[in-house]
Amino acid sequence: MSDAAAEPSAGGDEPGAGRITRARALLLVAFAVAVTLALYLFVPRLAGLDETWQRIKQGSPAWLALAFGFELLSFGGYILLFRTVFADTADRIGWRASYEISMGGVVATRLLAAGGAGGIAFTAWALTRFGLGAREVAARMTAFLVLLYAVFMAALVVDGLGLWLGLIPGPAPFGLTVGAAILGGSAIVIALAMSATPRDLPARARESISEERPRLATVLKWLATVPATMGRGVRGAMRLARREPLRSLGGAIAWWGFDIATLWACFHAFGGTPAAGVIVLAYFVGMLGNLLPLPGGIGGVEGGMIGAFAAFGVNGGLALVAVLAYRGFAFWLPMVPGLIAYLTLRRTIRREGEATPSPAS
């Protein structure tokens, strides 16, 4: 199947285009800084927890250094997963480009969360500049996201039910544990159902309409392309999971697992140790705040995590300082390397992308 591809030349290199892109990036960074400062400086005071802010300054340096290391390992898992999904494009997208695209995508996600829309858009833009066709990008990005979020949803099911049934130590409020398990299980069922989507669904949709109504046939074919492409991506993810389990699922587990370990280390830094199952479930519940169209989910993620910990009976002051410290690592640590990766990626695209012929239309 041949895919229509975007021009492989480095888009945005026309006069003025790069300046517009950088200006928008700077505005987003400035907005993120303002929101973050408001959250970190004023929330403790509004909550009547002035002493909590002082506790942030008194965290154990050793545990915070360990949190720093865990977050670096988390990014390594993300890059490994990306490289695994695009391994057969090594002539175009090698390890260097994989690092640049991954870190640039992480920063784009931090600046505009909305379910990861910023990172997805950035990654899709970069991949098309390396000569991948639009459908190929959509299918591979779907495979990448399925592998990444399969671990997320499986954790909701296993941890939620484990806590509720008493198999995992910790308190078990019904709404959080069973509710999370239902959410994760539903997402898994939907993904499996998509894997059964016929490959020729767009053609079937078009053929089902009379030739006297060509416009309707074209619209139906276009609408059918979405589930067909997603089904292709889900099947690709399943093949990768069977063929390269350590690299694919291992990369996804490392991304989430070491990020959770960062949160765990932050709790230790301030003298608290909630049950492991509680930390895992509260972490994933909080991550649903990334669905809000906020820079990095700032406010939504913190509020979700702190609220979940409160529902589990964790001390509010402890949860606040631990979550704020964790978010400091998760949000700010990739910023500088991610912005540098974006700038070097543009040079990589000009050097390698221009040498790559466009796929046949």
Protein model, in words:
The protein has 361 residues and is mostly helical. It has helices at residues 17-46, 50-57, 61-85, 95-111, 117-129, 134-165, 174-194, 201-207, 214-243, 245-269, 276-287, 300-311, 316-332, 335-353. 74% of the residues lie in helices and 0% in strands. It has one domain (24-171, 245-353). The chain is built from 14 helices and no strands. 44% of the residues are buried. Helix 2 packs across helix 13, helix 3 (61-85) crosses helix 4 and helix 6 (134-165) crosses helix 9.
Structural classification? mainly alpha
- How many runs of DSSP E, i.e. beta strands? 0
Our count of helices gives 14
The first-to-last residue Cα distance is: 10 Å
Indicate the proportion of strand residues. Answer: under 5%
Identify the overall geometry. globular
- What are the segments in which pLDDT stays under 50 over at least 5 consecutive residues? 1-20, 44-49
The SSE order reads: HHHHHHHHHHHHHH
**Major pleated sheet:** none
Radius of gyration over C-alpha positions, nearest whole angstrom: 22 Å
**Count of folded domains:** 1
Query: Helicity level, as a percent range?
Result: over 70%
Q: Can you give the mean pLDDT?
A: 78
